Amino acid sequence: MERFSIQTDQRETVVDITGKVRDAVKSSGIREGICIVYIPHTTAGVTINENADPSVKADIRSVLMKLVPEGRQYRHLEGNADSHVKATMTGSSVSVIVESGVLQLGTWQGIQFCEFDGPRTRQVWVKILGAV
Ligand code: ZN
d(Cα 4, Cα 20) in Å, to the nearest integer? Predict the structure, then answer.
């Protein structure tokens, strides 16, 4: 398994990690298979969406903030109940096909780490299953 860490700089932010995942695929040496990107945190997630226009990331962030506001009354008393809910909404893993050693993403797609309780140092785990 490959691992890398990222440092987020805001409570809620969306960070493009496509390049780091591509590096992990390269260093694995696997040419044909499946790449699983897994986030081992309860207040962060990962998604695949448009990378070309940064306003898409901003829209995803602002809609999630409106749907699940920080200050509402929740049972979880750590002050980050909204972060847990948003992490469940985005999910903790994505899978991407690897062919000829290349991640098979659509033209406009990127892999995006979603921070909901930063700023923090976060881990991203990448497992590539397949053949060399
Ligand atoms: Zn909590």
Answer: 8
